[in-house]
Amino acid sequence: MSRLELITKEARRSRRKLLIPYLVAGDPSIEITLDIMHDLVKNGADILELGVPFSDPSSDGEVIQQSIERSLKKGTSLTDTLKIVAEFRKLNQLTPIVLMGYLNPVEIMGHDNFVREAKEVGVDGVLMVDMPPAEAGVINQKLRDSNIDSIFLIAPTTSESRIKSILKMTSGYVYYVSLKGVTGASITDNDEVERNVKSLRAFTDLPIVVGFGVKDSTSARKMSRASDGVIVGTALVKSIGGLNAQECIDKGDIKKCTAIIGAIRKELDSDKGSDSAVKEHE
Questions:
Q1: Active site includes 27?
Q2: How far apart are CA 223 and CA 190, in angstroms?
Q3: Is residue 49 flagged as an active site residue?
Q4: pLDDT means per 10 residues in the chain (282 residues)?
Q5: Catalytic member of 5, 35, 49, 124
Q6: pTM for the complete prediction?
Q7: What is the C-alpha separation between 282 and 276, in angstroms, rounded?
């Protein structure tokens, strides 16, 4: 059983909402990324999504694009990202790590090399934003053979037939995009998100987590009521971005950045009484 399967099953058993922070590898530095990852776990993160820097992050909003640009200027690569995972695993063997990025760096490294190295360092899942499921068969099988989950995005505009084809390739959890647009935009129709997530449950028993537009404790609570958890990216990355202006970064600065995750964890845990997502599974 993979780390992702273990953590998601335990979360469902204990009625705990999954909290998944996203951060960009190498911003503000490789060393600080590692410190932030450990602090996110201390603040209640269940899974970590680690962004792989790429020069054309078409699905990301301005805040995450700027973070990726800062990381690239410092030379952070896919290889460096994998090294961060390896270092993280020296102290943490339990928290699942999902690499999130784009196909090009993986193509350059080569599918076999990427899957082998991801397995060796302890990657648990891969989400490549621009990899169409119809063209993902070969690498999807390689990842499955290495016990690495393949995660795909499902959007409000995704047709039923396409949802079914995506779910055939998906393991770990389903990433539901809450809005039409890029990361960092605001959710404008909570009811629509709830309806769409509920509809998805007819097609899968996998956990469904909501990303894009989850900015604070209030939006996290609303999105978690129909889903199995939330992904927090832009708000955290924006906070991390403030570290770049500092000449010296200490533990206190890192704690200030990750405090948003601790606040959201507290809010999610206090909201168990209205757990409609769990009721759907019972």
A1: no
A2: 7
A3: yes
A4: 93 96 97 97 98 89 94 97 98 98 95 98 96 87 96 93 94 88 53 91 96 90 93 94 83 94 96 56 50
A5: 49
A6: 0.92
A7: 10
